[in-house]
Here is the input.
Amino acid sequence: MAAPVRIFLLVLLLLGPGGWGRAEPPRDSLREELVITPLPSGDVAATFQFRTRWDSELQREGGTDHSFLRYAVLPREVVCTENLTPWKKLLPCSSKAGLSVLLKADRLFHTSYHSQAVHIRPVCRNARCTSVSWELRQTLSVVFDAFVTGQGKKDWSLFRMFSRTLTEPCPLASESRVYVDVTSYGQDNETLEVYPPPLTTYQDVILGTRKTYAVYDLLDAAVVSNSRSLNIQLKWKRPPENEAPPVPFLYAQRYVSGYGLQSGQLSTLLYNTHPYRAFPVLLLDTVPWYLRLYVHTLTITSKGKENKPSYIHYQPAQDRMQPHLLEMLIQLPASSITKVSIQFERALLKWTEYTPDPNHGFYVSPSVLSALVPSVVAAKPGDWEESPLFNSLFPVSDSSSYFVRLYTEPLLVSLPTPDFSMPYNVVCLTCTVVAVCYGSFYNLLTRTFQIEEPRKGGLVKRLANLIRRARGVPPL
Amino acid sequence: MGLLSDPVRRRALARLVLRLNAPLCVLSYVAGIAWFLALAFPPLTQRTYMSENAMGSTMVEEQFAGGDRARSLARDFAAHRRKSGALPVAWLERTMRSVGLEVYTQSFSRKLPFPDETHERYMVSGINVYGILRHLAASTESLVLTVPCGPDSTNSQAVGLMLALAAHFRGQIYWAKDIIFLVTEHDLLGTEAWLEAYHDVNITGMQSSPLQGRAGAIQAAVALELSSDVVTSLDVAVEGLNGQLPNLDLLNLFQTFCQKGGLLCTLQGKLQPQDWTSIDGPLQSVQTLLLMVLQQASGRPHGAHGLFLRYRVEALTLRGINSFRQYKYDLVAVGKALEGMFRKLNHLLERLHQSFFFYLLPALSRFVSIGLYMPAAGFLLLVLGLKALELWMQLHEAGVGPEEAGENPPHPLTQGVGLASLVAPLLVSQAMGLALYILPVLGQHVATQHFPVAEAEAVVLTLLAIYAAGLALPHNTHRVVSTQAPDRGWMALKLVALIYLALQLACITLTNFSLGFLLAASMVPAAAITKPSGPRYVLLSPHCRARTPPHGFYLTRSSSPPGASAPPQGALRCPAGADEPSSYTPGQLVPVAGAAGGTALPDRGLAALPGHAGPGRAGAPHLRRPALPTAGSGPLPLLAALLERALLEVTEAAGSSPRSLLPRK
Here is the structure.
């Protein structure tokens, strides 16, 4: 899949030694941004970014204590309105003003892709890091499906996407901007047209490619005042053709191979489509314990040859306690497909351990890929504080590469499942029948039956005979 | 059990079994056949009902209205296809992408074991095209709508309808599962190639490119075959590879939408009987039942859906039939039925598992569950059990009471049946079974290299060779027989063979009832009756007469195989005739347990010659294996050997390679 950044409810918390929620911090500043990107397929991607910072009195201790590093995944959960509402309440203006008025659940979930995230991190306020600010950063990405909403047309407007228009910035915001990606994919610049015409444009390198954005600053009175509302529209002069979207340099695919309920194989395909540069990828896999991994079958092949990872960390599972953890650093050769596969056996659970819908299957969490992907265009080193928020989502470590974290799709694996429709009577009946039949048949098969003439009298007769013999009389 | 542990009553029971053995056997056999035929009648058939809650009520409003679009797409597809002479891959890719699917292709090739007689080709290669409709959440589950396109069959209307459905589905937001729209080339070959690549296994030696796009675990699949713009009825096929069947709920689902849309739906080409009270209804359902049993026993998939079943994907095939009926339905009606089915399948929370996996269908809305049809096979196998019991009693004199024991002089070698002497013939039979299973394929290449024969002929010749080698079996069995008590030898051998046969038939019946039942119905009488009594002997080598009796005689029997000949009535009337042949004196001719039945078999082998099959089937890999000799000719151990081969084939239903994927006609 071309856009593999599927985000689940993922919690990666770096907690400091103290509880950070104790003090009521003064709200410092809010920056809000909306980035709208028309995709080559005709769909429209919209990304909301909110960043709130507040000061805290907690002291930041030097270094990170890794005993507080936690990683948890709920692969079964799908982000839905129940997640959106509390997420919106974290915003200073809730959904009353600013960009967040556009966040209407009925529109946001009529989309073909939806992802929302919350990041919290401490930020040093000075060079020596003696005092710490906390930063809460919320992002929401949706892809509007042109086929569903636009009835085949690929023009869009804010009103058509969100059924709302922008009227005012959030009063608490220090910055409130809308960015529209107007980068022309073709040779000429005249493929699309934005209305109202933007006052400023902004150019930068995002994910390795140079992009041009039309910028609408809501704090600028001229933008909103004309019609008291801002409804940005984009029209295609020449509709984009239905061509396959450009392939990213790094993407991945994961699947279960094999069939039957005994064994199987987890396969992860890592695609490096860069024409000439190899780069390393850190692959993190957590596999639940009921898939018993055969670690000796771990094979990594790229271009038909074995690829030896430069670093492997494996932590075996304990039944019902902890999952398998497999972390590898793999070098992906240029323009190659690397296949990481490992075989497993499906465990038989205890009958109380099955979920209420065991035939649905059991989820295996997605693997996580972290990589520094080389970019085509050299980025200019900028001041992160000044550049837009979305820029720092993909921080540039040096000029030639950018950091990407990918999540593959979760997997659904069916385990051997007993028939729960009537376990008790079936088990009981079978046991009874087997017990009764087994006993009797064993008895019949191992004994030989003979007819004996019954000896009458027994003990009494023998005693009588003894007496008779003593008396010298013939026995009975 | 008390009955059996009481010696007196036990003796009485044993005497009953011995005396009434023949009538009991006949009765049991007749009861089995009668039970089977009675399966089509209402007390034994039940009405089908939907077990799966998620698909329970039909609260789905079908909105598909793309009939014109489907027809124009079908015309385009047919035109492009005529132009290119193969599957128009580029057109399909373009159209699917314009509809809004993620499109991928997969190329595959397979060397056929036999050259195709009509096209003179060994290598079949083709390209599958599939598009994935993604839904909002992560791709963990999917449904498949597949259209197999054969080299000759025009399935263009199905492709058109599939694309129009894809366009309609793409505009909806309620999907909770991905939907894969798959167009396969070369019918089942393409389907198998795609399935193997999707599950990343290789079991048929297919060379195919790896799949670029996947959509999680496939929950259900529907194969669609249409050859005209209008249909009069929809035929549904359920029988899969090796007689596997999809969950009954899937069929119920189809039937629900048949009724809802007022479509005329058929099973095995037969309409559902309307009137169950008169004799016509049940008679029609008997026909349907028999057709299904034959279809299932063949083990061939009755459509592209049959290959999905191995991967635990419930699947069925819908065929549009255009006959001369008055009422015709256009593609919209078919499309609405499919849309309804897919929306219902979309509701599924778990895999289809609630309803039956083992059933027989006398009509579309009636079914027979496994608990009701198994007694039919049970009665047939009881015959073998009774016969074995009789032999056991005769061998051990268990049932012979004191008065009978007094009448007949006690047997000189009562306890002398050495099981060790049975090992050799049993091993030989086992080896025969294995040889029948393995050698025709192994020997095929060797034979074509060294002899001027075609590949297809080589298989038949190998079979002939094995059957000829089977003739050596009687020579081996005479070691068992050639003790002083020849009777006991063949009795012990037959006892073991009967039990073995019964066990294997029971196993086959469990996995594929139709095959097991047909085999039992044809083999049981022969197996029960076969007995080396009353043959005419031809002495082959007179000069051997001077030598010692057991090893000096090479006998063959000129009578026809025991299954075909009239059964020796004496054998049935005096089952306790164990003492009679014991009066053979040394030098007298000793009957040999096996009969030379091998000559009758190659005819059946020839009937299954690939070259003699239909044109599209020529070179089908499933014909690499000889067709099963079903009739009960030939000696008993050989029967067991054949059975073992059949069992090996059937057990592959759960396991390895499929034998029958080939371009249907």
In short: Chain A has seven helices and 25 strands. Residues 125 and 132 of chain A are 6 Å apart (CA to CA). Residues 1-27 of chain A have pLDDT under 50 and may be disordered.
